[in-house]
Write a structure and sequence with these properties.
Elements: H1 3-17, H2 24-40, H3 45-59, H4 62-65, H5 70-86, E1 101-106, H6 113-126, E2 131-135, H7 143-154, E3 158-159, H8 166-179, E4 184-188, H9 197-210, E5 214-220, H10 227-238, E6 242-246, H11 255-264, E7 268-272, E8 280-282, H12 285-292, H13 298-308, H14 311-323, H15 327-339, H16 342-349, H17 353-359, H18 367-377, H19 381-385, H20 392-402, H21 406-439
Parallel strand pairs: 1-4, 1-5, 2-3, 2-4, 5-6, 6-7
Antiparallel strand pairs: 7-8
The structure holds guanosine-5'-diphosphate.
Main location: cytoplasm
Pfam family, one: SRP54_N
Keywords: Cytoplasm, GTP-binding, Hydrolase, Nucleotide-binding, Ribonucleoprotein, RNA-binding, Signal recognition particle
């Protein structure tokens, strides 16, 4: 998502950086490029107009033009304005003290409502809540079955009320939650392919009947310019509190998603980056803007690592620092990277990583993990803990055993060598830091 927007913006910044001092014409030309990049990414034209006007005005000040690093200042201003466009600060999901809390999801059919309901339930469950899902989409065939299956996978009960009217189902779910001591009810409502009066009225009626604490609208990031009409109508009729953007992992241009906040004034609360229950992330304007500008999302990487790591792995990290890096560690690292969502997702969060990924054609194959795994598994116990003993003969044997080539094994040895060197450096740094502390 946002790949070509990222590329275009970075090209513009590169051109500015190449200039040193900037003239008014340089800024005007850069703003024209930014305008085109945003329009081509499907950002709403009115939003683009305001964005560029504000950014240009801030860039054309003496403070920026006469500074020692004008290009850097322009980048910083674009970043600031992008953060502002996306909503400035994180907008957390606020639950009230009422039990059960009711969260109602609205949106068009296919926007990802049902899966978002499950993802939200999963997230809340991880936070110690006990959610109940209410299947109020009685029109889409199998919607309730889909919810029941997915709910079963994450261990969250689903209230179906088969055959009942959606309003009764929602009310029944709230009663059931009281009975069964569930503290949050997540209501999945029916959507239609397009804005439709009956659907709107039903959402309004359910809202009136169960008085949700939060109404969240699910918006598909792949919707193009039409997104503005859709969210505006929903905002007017259901007065929702926040937005969940789904399918941000896809390769659509995504500009519609960037326009939602400016068009409705409602905050984006979550983004969904995949089909699995764990792919819902709390939305952070700052982190998203930095990702779009290719500046990396370090917080995101740390969070992913913390989720994937267990106490054993943290202990292993300490041991590696102490005793050096073995092939077993390398195997463990590969497995961890896989768990963190694969190379593509990690690279996408590194500064400049998205660009590198785009240069590689947007795809990077995780089969490299499988190859490395096979090679390490073909090593003897002794070879794994002391890779330096792996000579030419052993390399040929490992290649045969793992169905790879000696060149693959050589590459792996080289990687191990690099990592071991880095580990050595970190060890020295850690020792120096400890020595420093003791000396004080
Ligand atoms: P609903 O009609 O609004 O309830 O939509 P669904 O929840 O059934 O989702 C429609 C389709 O989009 C399903 O195939 C989902 O698996 C898929 N989907 C939903 N969210 C995401 C996402 O964040 N990423 C991807 N790749 N697919 C998604």
């Amino acid at each position: 998502m946002f790949n070509s927007l990222s590329d275009r913006l970075n090209d513009t910044f590169d051109r500015l950086r190449g200039k040193g001092k900037l003239t008014e014409a340089d800024i005007t030309s850069a703003m024209r490029d930014i305008r085109m990049a945003l329009l081509e990414a499907d950002v709403n034209f009115k939003v683009v107009k305001d964005f560029v006007a504000k950014t240009k005005e801030r860039c054309l000040t003496a403070e920026v033009m006469d500074s020692l690093t004008p290009a850097q200042n322009v980048v910083k201003i674009v970043l600031d304005e992008l953060v502002e466009l996306l909503g400035s600060t994180e907008s957390k999901l606020v639950l009230s003290s009422r039990i059960p809390n009711v969260i109602m999801l609205v949106g068009l059919q296919g926007s990802g409502k049902t899966t978002a309901a499950v993802k939200l339930a999963y997230l809340l469950k991880k936070q110690g809540k006990s959610p109940l899902l209410a299947a109020c989409d009685v029109y889409r065939p199998a919607a309730a079955d889909q919810l029941a299956t997915l709910g079963g996978e994450i261990g969250v009960p689903v209230f179906r009320g088969d055959g009942a009217h959606p309003i009764e189902i929602a009310q029944g779910a709230v009663r059931e939650a009281v009975d069964k001591m569930r503290d949050v009810v997540i209501v999945d409502t029916a959507g239609r392919l397009q804005i439709d009066e009956q659907m709107m009225q039903e959402a309004v009626d359910i809202k009136r009947a169960v008085k949700p604490d939060q109404v969240l609208m699910v918006v598909d990031a792949m919707t193009g310019q039409d997104i503005v009409n859709v969210v505006s109508t929903f905002a007017e009729r259901t007065d929702f509190d926040g937005v969940i953007i789904s399918k941000l992992d896809g390769d659509a241009r995504g500009g519609g998603a960037l326009s939602v906040r400016a068009v409705t004034g409602k905050p984006i609360k979550f983004v969904s980056m995949g089909e699995k229950p764990d792919s819902l992330e709390v939305f952070s304007p700052d982190r998203m803007a930095k990702r779009i500008l290719g500046m990396g999302d370090v917080v995101g990487i740390i969070e992913k690592a913390q989720e994937a790591a267990n106490a054993e792995q943290l202990e292993a990290a300490e041991r590696m620092l102490r005793d050096g890096f073995t092939m077993n560690d390398m195997l463990e690292q590969m497995r961890m990277l896989k768990k963190m969502g694969g190379m593509k997702s990690i690279l996408g969060m590194l500064p400049g990583g998205q660009r590198m990924l785009n240069q590689m054609g947007g795809n990077i194959d995780d089969s490299v993990f499988d190859k490395i795994e096979a090679m390490i598994q073909s090593m003897t116990k002794q070879e794994r803990v002391k890779p330096s003993i792996i000579n030419g003969q052993r390399r040929a044997r490992i290649a045969r055993g793992s169905g790879t080539t000696p060149a693959d094994v050589n590459n792996l040895m080289k990687q191990w060598g690099e990592m071991n060197k880095m580990m050595g450096k970190m060890r020295t740094m850690a020792q120096q830091a400890q020595g420093g502390k003791k000396g004080k």
